[in-house]
């Protein structure tokens, strides 16, 4: 680092300087690659290996790139473009590269992963779904293997043995949630051989903004069978009789619900308690009442959930399908089940949770790639300390980004959108329409059918099927309707996958991408735009917006604008376009603020988890548990030794006892802090800020659980039968869960595309 690099970084000149350097290296590599063409695979491997020094740095970058480029052409039939080689160098220094859709990031990622692996580091290439992990591992396998390295994919359907084997590879492609679930499951093992996950030195994240920003706060949950969770059906009954307006009010956003004073008094009377807001009840009864109230007033059968075969099935509103492996946060799930008179499934007990942000921050080195990194610069810096490097496109972009078309109402906007689709369709130009959710996709499809247009609708049925449909979205006259998330990572070639109609579609203007609204951040808009105009192809992007859209309503709250719509409701005014951009900047700032605030809560638990993890590791890997218990309980230890028990039996028995209580204490802590967080806004009134209050409680409680865990372990050590078969924990009522399962906490079904979920008492979702 030069002395003034901080200054140049701040001035955004870092990438300019690096670009000049890397262009030189890439130029040299190109010349070298010409000589490498005649070399054997073995020789290429030797050259690549010799470009790395013993401490794992790539010292001869041009030789390294030349060897990889040669192997790529030979094994994959892809000769890397210069910009791809430049991108590889940026990844190797740990940046997030901004590289447009269709520029070939899969190859870039594999080359960089190979570079890391050659320097002795294990790499996890993190994908957004199973389909992409499998596809990319298979696609890139010949390249990685030609350097004598192992490559594998981890996918949902794999069993423990298969996963363990996959994690042993040098380069592992895996969806982010599987990584998280494996980490969580490994935190329950009682001897080292049971471990599955192997921490990598580097995580290389594809679609980095989706994973590191959009999904960052999604909790991954490990639950298990444990029968000690109390529910209170009385609460449901009391709440069922409450009346809207008199006892509770629903916030204007329709996403929060508040007890009135009268309502609170009724509940207190019915439950026979003094005050819901007293210290005694605020973390328990009040939370349950709020959950039941949420379930009653805000969650609507057949919109937010279905009841099927006596079971509750969540509807993923964004995808419009039953979300199989998802549950609401536990109390809420139980509250809705009670409301519907179903058997309360309890979700067992939450044993552990981990957010994606926490998971990604555990990697010693992090880097990534996406078409929309620049727009996420602030978040990547703030939450991960990452820098963004912009990579120039291989060919000059030809896409035309038309100015937004603004309408007064949603109805007028939709008419105009349909007219535009009809027009483009008549000209045989393929059209891809990006919608907010599946409901919108479906109503659009119905309206198109009425106009005699047959559209392909991506319904998030499964990722592989979607990939196949979206891959053909560039066919002449094709109309494809898709939500933002659907078909990610799939290339749309003009004229179809085999390119037979390329010229025809090119002449028609290429792929047209239409947005049905501006998103809450311009980054999401750009993710959609990026679908058109790949590799210098012609293309069009155009957004339709109305003054009734979410982004305008939440971003422009409290502001008024004057506009004169024409006969079709169109508002053709630069001022209005500016206003909408302003609304979007407001929602962007709100999103960033929510992320920062939520992370502040999560960060503390993440730090505490580190302490627990360290303790766990030392209990697993050393005979610390036995040493400690022997010291605390010398009489019992002497008794066991005198009984002639072997050392390894004593060590393992002690380990199991200690781990049992450590894990239980941690689960209790998480549950308790969850309750605290739900009621923190009430607790903190007129005292400290909620976050300070939360910290104070978390630190105090954490010390307490550690102490209690050790105490309970001593007690078990004294009382549980220990013989040659080990510690008989289950006979002492201390069985570990007999079954565990994992899930992602569903998005707040009430948050829609707004962001008010984090305000008010109604904040039950994180
Ligand atoms: P991205 O992830 O950046 O959107 P992909 O990795 O999916 O892009 O690649 C897009 C397409 O470009 C693929 O069909 C791939 O085969 C092709 N491609 C990538 N690199 C090259 C190259 N160097 N030469 C020719 N085609 C390439
Ligand atoms: Mg990709």
TrEMBL record:
SUPFAM superfamilies: Helical scaffold and wing domains of SecA, P-loop containing nucleoside triphosphate hydrolases, Pre-protein crosslinking domain of SecA
Segments forming domain Helicase ATP-binding: 86-225
EC number in record: 7.4.2.8
Its membrane topology: Peripheral membrane protein
Highest taxon in the source lineage: Bacteria
Positions with a binding annotation for ATP: 84, 102-106, 491
Reaction(s) this enzyme catalyzes, per UniProt: ATP + H2O + cellular proteinSide 1 = ADP + phosphate + cellular proteinSide 2
Residue ranges constituting the SecA family profile domain according to the UniProt record: 4-577
InterPro entries xref list: Helicase_ATP-bd, Helicase_C-like, P-loop_NTPase, SecA, SecA_Actinobact-type, SecA_CS, SecA_DEAD, SecA_motor_DEAD
Domain Helicase C-terminal stretches: 416-587
Keywords, comma-separated and alphabetical: ATP-binding, Cell membrane, Cytoplasm, Membrane, Nucleotide-binding, Protein transport, Translocase, Translocation, Transport
Localization (cell): Cell membrane; Cytoplasm; Membrane
CDD domains: DEXDc_SecA, SF2_C_secA
Subunit structure: Monomer and homodimer. Part of the essential Sec protein translocation apparatus which comprises SecA, SecYEG and auxiliary proteins SecDF. Other proteins may also be involved.
Family, as annotated: Belongs to the SecA family.
Annotated function: Part of the Sec protein translocase complex. Interacts with the SecYEG preprotein conducting channel. Has a central role in coupling the hydrolysis of ATP to the transfer of proteins into and across the cell membrane, serving as an ATP-driven molecular motor driving the stepwise translocation of polypeptide chains across the membrane.
Full protein name: Protein translocase subunit SecA
Species for this entry: Corynebacterium pseudodiphtheriticum
């Amino acid at each position: 680092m030069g002395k003034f690099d901080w200054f140049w970084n701040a001035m955004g000149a870092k990438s300019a300087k690096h670009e000049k350097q890397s262009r030189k290296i890439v130029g040299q590599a190109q010349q070298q690659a010409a000589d490498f063409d005649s070399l054997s695979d073995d020789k290429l491997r030797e050259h690549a290996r010799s470009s790395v020094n013993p401490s794992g740095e790539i010292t001869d970058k041009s030789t390294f790139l030349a060897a990889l480029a040669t192997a790529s052409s030979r094994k994959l039939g892809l000769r890397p473009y210069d910009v791809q080689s430049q991108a590889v160098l940026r990844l190797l220094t740990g940046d997030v590269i901004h590289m447009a859709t269709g520029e070939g990031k899969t190859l870039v990622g594999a080359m960089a992963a190979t570079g890391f692996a050659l320097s002795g580091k294990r790499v996890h290439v993190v994908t957004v779904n199973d389909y992409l992990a499998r596809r990319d591992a298979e696609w890139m396998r010949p390249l990685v293997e030609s350097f004598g390295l192992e490559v594998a994919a981890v996918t949902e359907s794999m069993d423990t043995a298969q996963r363990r084997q996959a994690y042993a590879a040098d380069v592992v492609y895996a969806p982010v949630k599987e990584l998280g679930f494996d980490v969580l499951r490994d935190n329950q093992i009682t001897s080292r051989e049971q471990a599955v996950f192997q921490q990598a030195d580097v995580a290389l994240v594809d679609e980095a903004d989706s994973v590191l920003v959009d999904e960052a706060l999604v909790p991954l949950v490990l639950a298990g069978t444990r029968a000690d969770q109390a529910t209170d059906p009385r609460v449901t009954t009391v709440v069922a009789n409450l009346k809207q307006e008199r006892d509770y009010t629903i916030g204007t956003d329709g996403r929060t619900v508040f007890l009135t004073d009268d309502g609170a008094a009724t509940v207190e009377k019915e439950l026979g308690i003094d005050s819901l807001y007293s210290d005694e009840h605020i973390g328990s009864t009040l939370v349950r009442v709020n959950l039941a109230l949420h379930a009653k007033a805000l969650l609507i059968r057949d919109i937010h959930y279905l009841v099927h075969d006596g079971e509750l099935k969540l509807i993923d509103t964004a995808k419009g399908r039953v979300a199989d492996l998802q549950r609401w946060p536990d109390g809420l799930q139980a509250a809705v089940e009670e409301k519907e008179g179903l058997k309360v499934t309890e979700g067992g007990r939450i044993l552990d949770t981990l957010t994606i942000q926490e998971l990604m921050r555990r990697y010693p080195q992090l880097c990534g790639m996406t078409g929309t990194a620049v727009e996420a610069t602030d978040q990547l810096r703030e939450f991960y300390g990452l820098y963004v490097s912009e990579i120039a496109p291989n060919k000059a972009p030809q896409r035309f980004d038309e100015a937004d078309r603004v309408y007064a109402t949603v109805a007028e906007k939709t008419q105009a959108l349909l007219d535009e689709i009809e027009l483009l369709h008549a000209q045989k130009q393929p059209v891809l329409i990006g919608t907010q959710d599946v409901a919108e996709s479906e109503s659009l499809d119905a309206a198109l059918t009425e106009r005699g247009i047959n559209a392909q609708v991506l319904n998030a049925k499964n990722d592989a099927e979607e990939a196949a449909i979206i891959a053909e979205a560039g066919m002449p006259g094709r109309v494809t309707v898709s939500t933002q998330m659907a078909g990610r990572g799939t290339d749309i070639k003009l004229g179809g996958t085999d390119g037979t109609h390329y010229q025809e579609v090119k002449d028609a203007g290429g792929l047209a991408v239409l947005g049905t609204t501006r998103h809450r951040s311009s980054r999401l808009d750009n993710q959609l735009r990026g679908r058109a105009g790949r590799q210098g192809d012609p293309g069009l992007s155009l957004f339709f917006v109305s003054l009734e859209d979410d982004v305008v309503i939440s971003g422009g709250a409290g502001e008024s604008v004057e506009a004169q719509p024409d006969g079709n409701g169109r508002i053709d005014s630069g001022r209005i376009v500016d206003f909408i951009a302003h609304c979007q900047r407001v929602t962007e700032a709100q999103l960033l603020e929510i992320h920062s605030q939520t992370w502040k809560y999560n960060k503390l638990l993440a730090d505490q988890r580190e302490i627990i993890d360290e303790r766990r590791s030392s209990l697993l890997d050393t005979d610390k548990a036995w040493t400690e218990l022997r010291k605390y309980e010398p009489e019992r230890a002497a008794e066991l030794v005198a009984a002639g028990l072997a050392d390894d039996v004593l060590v393992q028995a002690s380990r199991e006892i200690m781990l049992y209580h450590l894990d239980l204490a941690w689960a209790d802590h998480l549950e308790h802090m969850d309750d605290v967080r739900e009621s923190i806004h009430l607790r903190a009134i007129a005292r400290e800020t909620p976050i300070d209050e939360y910290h104070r409680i978390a630190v105090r409680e954490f010390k307490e659980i550690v102490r209690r865990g050790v105490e309970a372990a001593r007690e078990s050590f004294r009382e549980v039968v220990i013989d040659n078969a080990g510690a008989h924990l289950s006979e002492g009522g201390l069985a570990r869960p007999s079954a565990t399962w994992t899930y992602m906490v569903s998005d707040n079904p009430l948050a829609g595309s707004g962001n008010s979920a984090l305000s008010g008492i109604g904040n039950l979702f994180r």
